[in-house]
Amino acid sequence: MIFDFDQLRSYTLGDRVLEDEVFGLFEDGARGYLDTLAAEMATGGPAWRRAAHGFKGSAANLGAAALAAELAAAEALDMAAPEARAQALHRIAHMFEHSCAVFRSRP
């Protein structure tokens, strides 16, 4: 599942304006996390893990389940080769954009 709209609606009580606002806040924060992951891609370490973990929590709370799963896998790459983090970041960025598209086309 790319996006669990029931989870989002449990927070917003089905208020679409509030859904848009909450998603906008998520989207802004996500771009910051993506920037941090990109900056830490070569070195990894605790900053990579913290960014992946924070982004994962935000995605999971909102209902972006597939993105949260990608981020959960990325957390463990803090000590992996830079190439592994680069591949993970590519998948994360793709899933983030896909999640945004699914949200925007929500029923």
Structure description:
- 79% of the residues lie in helices and 0% in strands.
- The protein is mostly helical and 107 residues long.
- It has one domain (5-104): Four Helix Bundle (Hemerythrin (Met), subunit A), CATH 1.20.120.
- The protein starts with a helix and ends with a helix.
- The mean pLDDT is 95.
List the helices and strands and how they pair.
Blueprint: H1 5-12, H2 16-40, H3 46-62, H4 65-75, H5 82-104
In short:
The chain has helices at residues 5-12, 16-40, 46-62, 65-75, 82-104.
Unreliable spans are none
Rounded radius of gyration (Å):
14 Å
- Total strands: the figure is 0
CATH top level class name: Mainly Alpha
Proportion of residues in helical segments? over 70%
CATH architecture type: Up-down Bundle
Number of domains: 1
Number of helices: 5
Kindly report the CATH topology: Four Helix Bundle (Hemerythrin (Met), subunit A)
SSE sequence, one letter per element: HHHHH
Any idea what the shape is? elongated
Strand content: under 5%
Name the structural class: mainly alpha
Mean pLDDT: 95
Distance between the termini: 15 Å
| Main sheet characteristics | none
InterPro entries: HPT_dom_sf (IPR036641), Sig_transdc_His_kin_Hpt_dom (IPR008207)
Keywords: Two-component regulatory system
Domain HPt: 22-97
Protein name: HPt domain-containing protein
